[in-house]
Specification:
The chain is an all-alpha fold and 67 residues long. It contains 3 helices and no strands. Helix 1 packs parallel to helix 3 and helix 2 packs antiparallel against helix 3. It is globular.
Length: 67
């Protein structure tokens, strides 16, 4: 896994943990979500691009910005 993808995954997981503090509520969902995202991505770059879009959305939600 390249560093950009690892960083995006870590950021996304961290943002989800802030939104939903109980990890049992989101851990199974995030695994399912990432598998679905990976299936829809044409390649690794596409997966990273989609993941960064999700991370941007989550950051805006956490920061109280509009989506």
């Amino acid at each position: 896994m390249n560093d950009d993808l690892r960083e995006a995954l870590n950021d996304t997981a961290g943002d989800l943990a802030q939104l939903i503090p109980n990890t049992e509520d989101w851990s199974n969902w995030i695994i399912y979500f990432l598998e679905e995202l990976e299936d829809k991505a044409v390649n690794r770059a596409g997966f990273l691009e989609m993941l960064l879009e999700v991370q941007d959305y989550l950051s805006k939600r956490i920061g109280g910005g509009s989506t």
